[in-house]
């Protein structure tokens, strides 16, 4: 297990915890899936234009978010329907573009499910800078995002630019997708957001505790998944997600046991 892998996993976990909380609170799992599915198109655009894959994925994430916000404002279709259309359209176009570019199936497979061999020093720079900057922005927006999550009307009354904050939250999710895609894989990135945050929610007493708990759980499972995937020669993304699910089940069982042992009344 190399230093770039350890540093990358730690940076991703620190950002995934608090971002995952908002995905859970605001019920944005479908958006996370759609954004992740669009990542392959970003990779293809990066190859065509000659820029880094991460920048290509972030650009596609911005286009995806703007398109969704505009279509939702037209009030013609439900949000989940729009997300389904956009997600599958982007994924299909991405797969077709990669095929036309002559990218080998094995490389596409690595993007879909993650790969131990995909993280190097160059990727590390993008991941650490992207996650660090995103975490700083998220902490700056934290009070307004919490207020917006509890009540958009109250947030408007307090002067919070709700639509701007909503777009920035989507953009931060796009940065996480771009940073995590080569480790966790396009098909499983949303799991890195919702499962650790949901597990932390079982025992957290405050939003901040849930965010910190989500980061710790994500980090623990990612760091444990690296040697397990390497030793068993299995895809990295599914290994990390399987460990995360196992930990969630254990914490859920513990919470149910605690509730049963509580005295009545």
From TrEMBL:
The keyword Membrane applies. The chain crosses the membrane at residues 37-70, 82-103, 123-142, 162-180, 216-234, 240-258. One of its GO terms (cellular component) is ATP-binding cassette (ABC) transporter complex. It holds the Pfam family ABC-3. It is found in: Cell membrane. Belongs to the ABC-3 integral membrane protein family. This is High-affinity zinc uptake system membrane protein ZnuB. It comes from PS1 clade bacterium. The lineage of its organism: Bacteria, Pseudomonadati, Pseudomonadota, Alphaproteobacteria, PS1 clade.
